[in-house]
Write a structure and sequence with these properties.
Length: 380
């Protein structure tokens, strides 16, 4: 990596399209502008975001980790890269990268600063691989080793203290959003609605999330059934990995049978999809720290309906509505309440949503916080 500029190596589990992965891309871009030299290593095979990073001139390595049997080989390769790249600071993202990155530093015997990055809160470990539960248990025991732990939510910080994490220091840096990419866009709104066959004056509810137990798509579909039965002018647009016509859970649901639900799968034009919505719903049950999609939707002037998970309530403030977990009727009523607001009330919510992102979560400001944190760690 050479030269006198600070050298930062980011290690992440994968470069698929996800909240942590997208935030890493934003941070790397902001750090590059601030004079840091960044390299990214994905433990798994290259994902879509690897191409985007490479197009921006970022060096990307992939270790091809596919299962537990690949771990020894991946660790050896990672340790070799650490010796070759000689980073000043290693930033790991997500549990498996936190653990493998730390072990690789020990194996390589390199002198560098180390920061972990926690992006979630309150995971139901019974729904995921045993390796995740084991990784968290080990990480809690060795959490004094890194120079600090970054979190993107107060909920995540509090939850991991309960897991036994005792780092030298915590640093809370929220997610940041590009207000030029995510913004109200009447042209995109009309185009997306036209493509989907939705009237321009129809009320559109969206959910942008991968198909995962934590996201609770079922509650949204149950609520959609209620809303459509009461008033037919509301449409529902769902997109994300696994949210398509091959998903039997979704296509066999009664809400889909009404013809008012569109399943778009994973999309690359999320900013346009969000701009086409009147409200975004995130009925998650657990696991969320600071969901990127909330900030992205709010930056587009879209109010959000959320559950009390992670920092969601604090993020939306008075611009959106809070609902209980797994309550289709409560969600239906919240959707109907926003649909039936006056033009002035709806406009106030849209303006307030974008203002909150502008004042608190501008990506350039968040990027400076990462740069300041790294500089402080390197100079300590």
């Amino acid at each position: 990596m050479g030269g006198s500029v600070p050298r930062v190596l980011h290690i992440i589990t994968s470069l698929e399209v996800g909240g942590a992965e997208k935030m890493l891309c934003k941070v790397v871009e902001e750090l590059s502008s601030a004079g840091f030299a960044c390299v990214v290593i994905s433990l798994k095979a290259p994902g879509p975001l690897a191409r985007i990073l490479k197009e921006r001139g970022v060096q990307v390595y992939s270790l091809g980790l596919g299962s537990l049997v690949d771990v020894p080989r991946a660790l050896i390769r990672l340790a070799k890269l650490l010796r070759e790249l000689k980073p000043d600071l290693v930033q790991t993202w997500l549990y498996h990268a936190d653990l493998l990155g730390t072990v690789a530093i020990w194996l390589a015997r390199v002198r560098c600063r180390l920061l972990w990055n926690i992006r979630c809160s309150g995971i139901d470990f019974s729904l995921y691989s045993k390796s995740t539960r084991i990784a968290v248990s080990i990480l809690a025991r060795i959490s004094r080793y890194p120079d600090g732990i970054l979190v993107n939510s107060q909920a995540g910080l509090t939850e991991h203290i309960s897991y036994g994490y005792r780092p030298k220091r915590w640093r809370l840096i929220p997610n940041g959003f590009d207000l030029k990419e995510f913004k109200p866009d009447a042209v995109a709104r009309a185009r997306i609605r036209g493509d989907l066959g939705i009237p321009g004056d129809g009320f559109v509810v969206g959910m942008v999330a991968r198909f995962d137990p934590m996201k609770d798509h079922r509650t949204l579909l149950d609520a959609a059934t209620i809303v459509v039965a009461r008033c037919g002018r509301t449409s529902f647009v769902l997109c994300g990995r696994g949210v398509d016509h091959s998903n039997e859970v979704l296509v066999t649901h009664s809400a889909y049978q009404t013809g008012r639900v569109r399943l778009l799968g994973e999309r690359s034009d999320v900013s346009a999809i969000l701009a086409s919505l009147d409200v975004l719903v995130l009925p998650s049950l657990f696991g969320e720290g600071f969901p990127n999609v909330l900030g992205e939707a709010m930056a587009c002037g879209v109010p959000c309906i959320v559950t009390q998970v992670g920092d969601c309530s604090a993020i939306i403030g008075n611009s959106g509505l809070l609902i209980p977990f797994q309550s289709p009727e409560a969600l239906a009523q919240a959707i109907e309440a926003l649909r039936d607001e006056s033009d002035d009330e709806a406009s106030r919510r849209r303006v307030d949503a974008r203002r909150r992102v502008l004042e608190n979560f501008d990506v350039h400001v968040i990027g400076k916080q990462y740069a300041a944190e790294y500089t402080g760690v390197l100079n300590s």
